[in-house]
Design a protein that fits this description.
24 strands; 25% strand; 4-stranded mixed beta sheet; alpha/beta; binds ligand EPZ; 13 helices
Length: 414
């Protein structure tokens, strides 16, 4: 199993360009199933989760090829609407295939997406949305079968602004007869990117980015070409790497507005933030503790809770971080404690007492974002750290070791 070896206490300096967004690419890849023909997606990152989605689409009959960061997806021969259990378990995002397969084939069979390290991953909101536009859903023997003689527009009111359920509803409703209104929709930028692609394919969707999305169904959709938005979570992670190492980093290829809740908290911690139209610069200062609560967009993103927690382990004073989105998203805490952090977890709240410094240790990445938190801690720690199970980290960060090395980090993968 590969691991990172990191020698800490190096200030990171320089420019880094973030890759295309994993969480925009995955639903967009699924959306290509709504039509027949060759779609072209640019700025697709090389990530394990993207490969997993590629494997599923290929198994369904799609032909996919990659030329550098461009992906061509030919869905002309897609004829299956059943996803095998082992692939469903491999990646939660396979649930995004429900909407497109139901929209195109009026039937889909898949097993429950496995839970994952950050907590149970129910899909009740996904199912509720599909039922509201005419699907009959049977859940038995660990499988879900959704079918509809016809999809008809309806009113979808979410109890919680679920990102995936919003995206599934948009994709299924795009080919329904009539108008669908989604209320309490998730507002993440990745949903706006999906709306752009679906409208390029011929859909009639408006309102993405707000809490109400309108979809006027059409009879057919067509292949499209699109450049994926950049990854705001990767960008935030690199900003935090600059802060925790007391460096000076320019993160390029990012829309600053997407990270306002994050840069605001970094300023509260004591970092200096400047920004242009497509970059954010961070210069570290004396770090002081802050209180953070994760929320749906535009609140502080749950995907940056773990790396931010690493940053506050060496900030003066006490910080309180509350995780409101997922049940079990503090798996980085035990590993950070091995590096000398002082953290107490009570339910969904972590109380962090800042320490002078962390010390290098042998740690293991328990999941994607917890893994990124350990990388940041190792960059700041005195001495050498070994981070095992880096495959978790490579699910969501393209060449993170090479990008950090280019900023001066002493990191190698072995
Ligand atoms: C997306 O997951 C992202 N993944 C996650 O990023 C991200 O953390 C999450 O949105 C929140 O921003 C992708 O886009 C591929 P949700 P998703 O549905 O759609 C509950 C990463 O690290 N819920 O908004 O699964 C659920 O249990 C990943 O890149 C229901 O109860 O998130 C959770 O507590 C991790 N019923 C909360 O809502 C449902 O039917 C948020 O889930 C669906 C969700």
């Amino acid at each position: 199993m590969e691991k990172f070896i990191v020698r800490g206490e190096v200030q990171l300096c320089g420019n880094v360009r973030v890759s295309g967004a994993k969480n925009a690419t995955l639903p967009i890849m699924a959306a290509t199933l709504l039509c027949s023909g060759i779609s072209v997606i640019h700025d697709v990152p090389y990530l394990r989760d993207i490969q997993a989605m590629q494997d599923i689409l290929t198994l369904l009959g799609a032909k996919i090829c990659r030329q550098d960061h461009t992906m061509l997806i030919d869905t002309s021969n897609v004829c299956k609407a059943e996803i095998p259990e082992h692939l469903m378990r491999e990646m939660r995002a396979s649930v995004f295939l429900m909407g497109p397969l139901l929209g195109r084939f009026r039937k889909v069979r898949l097993s429950y997406p496995g839970g994952c390290a950050i907590g149970p991953r129910p899909i009740n909101l996904h199912i509720k949305a599909l039922e509201k536009i005419g699907a009959i859903v049977d859940e038995s023997y660990g499988f879900i079968v959704a079918e509809a003689a016809e999809l008809t527009g309806g009113e979808v009111n979410f109890d919680f602004p679920s990102v995936g359920a919003t995206e599934n509803a948009m994709m299924a409703a795009a080919l329904a007869k009539g108008t669908t209104i989604i209320r309490n929709a998730a507002r993440e930028p990745e949903i706006v990117d999906l709306q752009v692609v679906l409208n390029k394919m011929g859909a009639k969707i408006s309102g993405a980015g707000t809490d109400t999305i309108r979809i006027d169904g059409v009879s057919r959709l067509f292949p499209a070409e699109h450049t994926v938005m950049s990854d705001r979570i990767e960008a935030g992670t690199f900003l935090m790497a600059g802060v925790i190492t007391r460096g000076d980093i320019v993160v390029e290829n990012i829309i600053p507005e997407y990270l306002f809740s994050v840069t605001d908290k970094l300023q509260d911690i004591g970092a200096q933030i400047t920004a242009g139209s497509d970059y954010i610069r961070v210069k570290a200062g004396e770090l002081r503790g802050v209180d953070i609560k994760t929320l749906p967009y535009p609140g502080f993103p749950t995907d940056l809770q773990a790396p931010m927690l690493s940053v506050v382990t060496i900030a003066k004073g006490t910080s309180i971080i509350t995780e409101t989105i997922f049940e079990n998203r503090f798996k980085h805490v035990d590993e950070l404690t091995r590096m000398g952090a002082k953290i107490k977890v009570e339910g969904r709240t972590a109380i962090i007492r800042g320490v002078q410094k962390l010390t290098g240790a042998i740690v293991a990445a328990p999941d994607l974002r917890a893994g990124s938190a350990l990388v940041l801690a190792a960059l700041a720690a005195e001495g050498t750290s070994e981070i095992e199970q880096v495959y978790h980290i490579e699910r969501g960060y393209e060449n993170i070791d090479k990008k950090l090395h280019a900023l001066g980090a002493n990191i190698i993968k072995v």
